[in-house]
Task: inverse folding
């Protein structure tokens, strides 16, 4: 893990880190994926319908299994909202995921990505994606309470 950490790019914004995350997903590039994640064992990833995965190794293993299945994903991210402070960014968005060479229409996912700013720039600390309930339309404006 130390070699990977030494080679990590510096993401100057949380948006840069997010773009690198989704690019790595589409390319099924495990090494690029893991450069986006924070170097902390408290990082968390929850795949749609999956358990809570905590720690660098567990998250790396889960993405490795996803990428090894051979299916390549295309991602379209919309309806983004961002909360920012100097050291934390929370992105709430809708992911439209499709498999390349597959015409099946998949339900969108609601996702939350939390980024932390540290000495090596912005890094992903939490990725949580869940299926959007069928009765919710992504076109309906959201009301904050």
Result:
């Amino acid at each position: 893990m130390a070699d990977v950490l030494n080679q990590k790019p510096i993401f100057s914004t949380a948006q840069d880190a997010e773009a690198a995350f989704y690019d790595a997903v589409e390319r099924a590039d495990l090494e690029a994926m893991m450069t986006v994640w924070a170097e902390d064992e408290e990082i968390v990833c929850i795949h749609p319908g999956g358990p809570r995965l905590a720690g660098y190794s567990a998250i790396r293993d889960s993405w490795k299994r996803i990428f090894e299945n051979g299916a390549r994903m295309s991602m379209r991210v919309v309806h983004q909202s961002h909360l920012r402070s100097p050291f934390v960014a929370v992105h709430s968005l809708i992911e439209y995921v499709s498999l390349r060479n597959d015409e099946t229409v998949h339900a969108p996912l609601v996702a939350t990505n939390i980024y932390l700013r540290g000495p090596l720039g912005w890094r992903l600390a939490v990725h949580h994606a869940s299926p959007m309930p069928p009765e919710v339309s992504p076109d309906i404006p959201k009301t904050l309470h």
Summary: The helical segments are 2-6, 14-27, 30-36, 56-68. The beta strands are 44-46, 52-54, 73-84, 88-99, 109-118, 121-131. DSSP finds four helices and six strands in the chain. Residues 1-5, 140-145 have pLDDT under 50 and may be disordered.
